[in-house]
DNA sequence: ACCGGATTGTTACCATATAGAACAATTGGC
DNA sequence: GCCAATTGTTCTATATGGTAACAATCCGGT
């Protein structure tokens, strides 16, 4: 039983559905590609009870011991209100600890526990597999090209302000 | 492979925040790039009271008169429960009409009104500008490469079940 | 030392986007 | 006619992100 032919009109004479306008947009293609990454990453991280954001913060804190929450926010490009919830969860699970930052009683100095490190090591391996699967159609050269192109978009700044520091 | 042993994030070691692990992931770079697209698109579409999803559906219905909601869902890669809300909104705003599909009283035959077409024409122009701005650092050749690479990811299918027609 | 503005973290609320389950009406194969 | 599949719908849940307001703290100028 096939029924997707011309029954309710004519979508393109033979059942094909056109999306020329959308497919002509890089943003749309980016979205579709990103969703593949996102959904697959989500599944893979679920086994560790991690999500995109918690993994990212875990990674940052591991690479930058004693980082503050606002530094996490700035580096990840999210709001600091967002980091609170993430760190809350990581802390409750014993993966990260909030120590007081020496010299600034407003800020925390985040640190990862051994459990956090162990979980991260496992998760990062899983993510490597995930990326390899998603990108299986691309050669190493393609992947390098893609990475380079994405990073150049990465740096585009259309109207922000980032000259203070 | 190596990870987290060389702590490869200490270029400056006094103010710089490392994110070597994350930046080494294509998925992370994709996310950052996509977020730039998304946020900017959102702002630009806001002037037309459109959002990503409503614009996409509008585009599809324009390109495919009498398309059904499930066809929209399948083409966009979303759930059909999602299309309901979008079409609801488009219909309330008089941009799209739900006509009954001749020959199938379950399905709708979606069509765009003149107002919908007019709005779409304006919006698509705005989006072209938006893309041009976001991609201003990339040459036309770069953009073509990026598009091609994204589409190849686009086609990756790890679940492997869509060969029924 | 004081004051006021900036910073850090926090909480609360909202918007967007998506998935999934359950359901009614309808279709279509048998 | 029966029953499974399909279409649309509603409700719920999750994830991500932004804004706004607030307390505590810091910092710079006076």
TrEMBL record, chains A, B:
Gene source species: Flavimaribacter sediminis
Keyword Ribosomal protein: no
Keywords: DNA-binding, Transcription, Transcription regulation
Pfam families xref list: MarR_2 (PF12802)
All residue ranges annotated as the HTH marR-type domain in the record: 19-155
Protein name as catalogued: MarR family transcriptional regulator
Domain of life, source organism: Bacteria
SMART domains hit by this protein: HTH_MARR
Molecular function in Gene Ontology: DNA binding; DNA-binding transcription factor activity
